[in-house]
């Protein structure tokens, strides 16, 4: 059975094509903001809710009145942007119904609208538009032309949608493909529990430690220098724009390095194990700022904010959320089983006798049970508990 996968490739546009791609993003951003203003104004003045269907029906007249702007792009291409806004409103109302405090959909500035999507290959776009070219791959985009693609791997399945994304000074094409072969891996008979950490990205129940490269920490010196240089530049100046680009390039490099490390670590686990159990982690909640402690006299007591800030930075640098997302995708594609377990007390419970106490974990790395005296690496002990919880959930699901 095929699955849906995405393939991302670097674009090699010419100078004119870069200008055209930038204009394309600007036109779609203007449509997005205008449609958002339409919804806000209609509800504020008349208490009328404007839907996607209403705005899609008006799109024909908008394109006719602006042939050199909105009219340059295909109808379905513009509809995709309206669906994007509708999806933002849908997410807002879903979070509202769930009792959360969501932010209302916002207007997009130039730096906050970097992706556009063609909803169908062949409608305003064409992947591999010059199939007989000997050395290069091209994607044809309406209003932009044939853009060269750095295709570093084979595209599998059927191309359904084509997106173009700007990341700093780079442009990428993202292909969403259906019916991609799953690529199921052979059965190994091995199972593992993993404990995510900061010293090691992940520790398995059999004692393997997957390294945490700490890419942000390695780049921290260069990033701090670039940010100090940015702070000295006058707003609106050409030098400031260059300084902003340097900071963005450093952050983009860290992001690419983190993704690469997460892919490699996840692939190692998926290749070697049929079932992987991991903790259910809410990284957003774990990296919240330390709550203030008023002293009652208008001041504040020490709340460990500096230490909490450093821990938050380390957690985000490790990229737990990204790693678990990639692990989930690879496990599904390879036919492996991934089970999420409740992390409560997994680091405090002895894997030998089951005694649970805060004092069992004497340091960050050492676990020593106060009841039976069992000693082990703290992360390995936690990973064994996670594996047992995962196996219990698997057995219960099979018995049901």
TrEMBL record:
Question: Does the UniProt entry include the keyword Zinc?
Answer: yes
**Occurrences of domain Transposase putative helix-turn-helix (ranges):** 1-45
Where is the Probable transposase IS891/IS1136/IS1341 domain positioned along the sequence?
188-289
InterPro entries from the UniProt entry: Cas12f1-like_TNB, RNA-guided_DNA_endo/Transpos, Transposase, Transposase_put_HTH
Q: Decide whether keyword Amino-acid biosynthesis is in the record.
A: no
Keywords for this entry? DNA recombination, DNA-binding, Metal-binding, Transposition, Zinc
What positions does the domain Cas12f1-like TNB occupy?
320-386
Q: Name one GO molecular function term.
A: metal ion binding
One annotated GO biological process? DNA recombination
Protein family = In the N-terminal section; belongs to the transposase 2 family.
List the protein's name: Transposase
Q: Which organism is it from?
A: Actinoallomurus iriomotensis
This protein's encoding gene? ydcM
């Amino acid at each position: 059975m095929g699955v849906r996968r995405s393939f991302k490739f670097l674009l090699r546009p010419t100078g004119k094509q870069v200008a055209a791609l930038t204009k394309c993003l600007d036109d779609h951003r203007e449509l997005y903001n205008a449609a958002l203003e339409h919804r806000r104004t209609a509800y504020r003045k008349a208490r009328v809710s404007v839907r996607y269907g209403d705005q899609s029906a008006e799109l024909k007249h908008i394109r006719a009145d602006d042939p050199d702007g909105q009219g340059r792009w295909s109808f379905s291409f513009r509809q995709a942007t309206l669906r994007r806004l509708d999806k933002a409103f849908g997410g807002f109302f879903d979070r509202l119904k769930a009792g959360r405090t969501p932010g209302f959909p916002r207007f997009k500035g130039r730096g906050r609208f970097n992706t556009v999507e063609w909803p169908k290959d062949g409608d305003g776009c064409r992947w591999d538009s010059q199939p007989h070219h000997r050395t290069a791959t091209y994607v044809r985009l309406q209003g932009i032309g044939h853009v060269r693609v750095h295709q570093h791997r084979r595209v599998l399945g059927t191309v359904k949608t084509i997106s173009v994304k700007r990341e700093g000074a780079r442009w990428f094409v993202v292909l969403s493909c259906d019916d991609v072969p799953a690529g199921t891996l052979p059965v190994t008979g091995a199972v593992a529990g993993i404990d995510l950490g900061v010293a090691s990205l992940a520790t398995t129940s059999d004692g393997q430690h997957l390294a945490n490269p700490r890419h942000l920490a390695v780049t921290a010196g260069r990033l701090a220098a670039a940010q100090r240089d940015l702070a000295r530049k006058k707003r609106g100046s050409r030098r400031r724009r260059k300084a902003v680009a340097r900071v963005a390039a450093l952050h983009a490099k860290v992001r690419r390095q983190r993704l690469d490390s997460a892919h490699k670590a996840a692939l190692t686990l998926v290749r070697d194990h049929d079932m992987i159990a991991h903790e259910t982690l809410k990284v957003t909640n774990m990296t919240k700022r330390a709550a203030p402690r008023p002293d009652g006299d208008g001041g504040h007591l020490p709340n460990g904010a500096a230490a909490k800030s450093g821990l938050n930075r380390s957690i985000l640098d490790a990229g737990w959320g990204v790693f678990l997302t990639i692990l989930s995708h690879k496990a599904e594609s390879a036919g492996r089983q991934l089970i999420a377990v409740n992390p409560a007390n997994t680091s405090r419970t002895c894997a030998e006798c089951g005694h649970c106490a805060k004092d069992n974990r004497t340091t960050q790395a050492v676990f020593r049970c106060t009841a039976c005296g069992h000693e082990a690496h703290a992360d390995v002990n936690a990973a064994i508990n996670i594996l047992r919880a995962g196996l219990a959930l698997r057995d219960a699901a099979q018995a049901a």
